Amino acid sequence: MEVTNRYITIKTHIDSAPKESHFELKTAALALSVAPGSNYVIVKNLYVSIDPYQVNRMKSYSSSHKATSFSVGICPGEAIDAHGAGRVVASGNPNFEKDDLVIGLLTWGEYSVLKEGKALNKLDPMGFPLTYHVGILGTSGLTAYGGFFEVCKPKKGEKVFVSAASGSVGNLVGQYAKLFGCYVVGCAGSKQKVELLKGKLGFDDAFNYKEETDLKSALKRYFPDGIDIYFDNVGAGMLEAAVANMNAFGRVAACGVISEYTGGLRAAPDMVDVVYKRITIQGFLVVDFMNVRADFLSRTSDHLRTGKMQAIEDIVAGVESIPSAFLGLFRGDNIGKRLVKIADE
Amino acid sequence: MEVTNRYITIKTHIDSAPKESHFELKTAALALSVAPGSNYVIVKNLYVSIDPYQVNRMKSYSSSHKATSFSVGICPGEAIDAHGAGRVVASGNPNFEKDDLVIGLLTWGEYSVLKEGKALNKLDPMGFPLTYHVGILGTSGLTAYGGFFEVCKPKKGEKVFVSAASGSVGNLVGQYAKLFGCYVVGCAGSKQKVELLKGKLGFDDAFNYKEETDLKSALKRYFPDGIDIYFDNVGAGMLEAAVANMNAFGRVAACGVISEYTGGLRAAPDMVDVVYKRITIQGFLVVDFMNVRADFLSRTSDHLRTGKMQAIEDIVAGVESIPSAFLGLFRGDNIGKRLVKIADE
């Protein structure tokens, strides 16, 4: 059987702010079978993850960050790999059979052709929606869990500040921190997001950073006794303001820098504060946390079953919506984990 | 017996670059005896330490850094406390007797009157010059030792970069790193300093940062395989360049920020590098390392006795020289540990 696979590519490398015109929906004929002796796995994509870090992979090598040597660049015209959940339609790989549900590195398209099965795993939904395995039980969840527990090393009662707190990772950091016994304040970019944080997600407090003219004073107001832990998803002025309001032996978990990804301002945290207050600023990636993945899955799925944690999802439909769903991340359109639903289960 | 004690004060708080005119040599009559029942200790100062961090204590409260709440501010007109070595001339404190050699928090003056003996210890010179106990075996040494071993957590063969590498702490970090088996490059601000690092101190390489127009390229040249550890004494552009050249899981020990102390530029390290390369930037103070002080003393004195470490000292004579000796730190005048000799032993 042969189908027409529709998938998203970039037309050129993107070194400025990304726009719709940088993207293209391509089509290619795809045989839903594998040649005898081949190790290929062909997956029908069901849900794919939409994450800001992809923009760093779209930059040209010359202008791109040295950091991209730690992730694989995206070539114009080629399929873009991204985490997702799908169903195997054909397999030459003994680890996978037709109709297996799988989770792993798929593509921003209707089908994924995986030459090796390395970044693919069979998925037991454990009674949860598939989308949970891309978000709260997937890389977003593990990023939040590892970043909070392994990097921030929290103690009960500590004061935690989370930026982009209604985002895919931020909302989970706040939930973990509350369950652990910390005082948690988040910031986000709209009234609706702030209400979600204070209401459904149980943050102790939250504010709309767009309504604040002086972030340093704002944080002083929300943390009169100082910040012990700052989970940073944005960088720039928010990082500076958090460092200025930090307590001795404070920790900054540097998870993301959305302010810098598309050429925005850099943070210039006061290093005198860093020295005198013995602040630690630590970068991390989700791949560093594979050693705690089993604990993460077991604890998080328990919390979901008992209703102690909430999955906040923002699901957009259709492969053709991927570029706009992606671009919306940089405008703060999403609330919670953004996914694109490619096909019905 | 009564003497005239000469000591240095600041006339006003110093919120700009410090100048000679900010300082004053004051005199006061001082009885070299303690009243019965008093706990006072009077010390004749022999050597006092001259350190850049003092400038942060001289700032006014309003304009001063929040960080100064972690160190005690200096009041205009009053004696300025500073580490040093001296000899007890009178004591009402049962822990000290006349003629005891002592080390601890003395003052920038000829005599120190200590109301409590808390920050004072009897000194056994262990066969070393007194000056060593203010420098290489004192706070400078422990800062270097703790900062390198406890904060940087080095592995043999790692590539280490040290800024202000001929300074009181930097030269010792480089020496510890070499003895430990690391590859060490230092930067300093003169040809003479660079020669000291490469010659007497055995650094693998060194360069004069004033001769470099692009610090990022310079570090790329000296570290073609990247930097694993950066021991930062300066901040600003050097910190940015080091982060740009850092390897995955690199560590920055933030020891001092001389570029910021007198109103210079702040560092804006690229946080995207920090995230992707999982860099840790950690501030620290010498007081954090009391748990390793015994090890530090034993290992460092062994290294000194066997000639494996060198004490680089820069000794200026006379209490009246303190302001110029201090101001010279910000021009990079000193080579190694700067002390002022107040009196003959």
TrEMBL record, chains A, B:
Q: Which SMART domains match?
A: PKS_ER
Q: What's the short name of a Pfam family annotated to this entry? A: ADH_N_2
Coiled-coil segments: none
Read off the SUPFAM superfamilies from this record. Answer: GroES-like, NAD(P)-binding Rossmann-fold domains
Protein name (record): 2-alkenal reductase (NADP(+)-dependent)
- What is the protein's species of origin? Morella rubra (Chinese bayberry)
TM helices/strands, residue ranges: none
Q: Which UniProt keywords apply?
A: Oxidoreductase
| Domain of life where this protein originates | Eukaryota
Q: Where is the Enoyl reductase (ER) domain?
A: 16-340
Q: Name one GO molecular function term.
A: oxidoreductase activity, acting on the CH-CH group of donors, NAD or NADP as acceptor
Cite the InterPro entries for this sequence.
ADH-like_C, ADH_N_2, ER, GroES-like_sf, MDR_fam, NAD(P)-bd_dom_sf
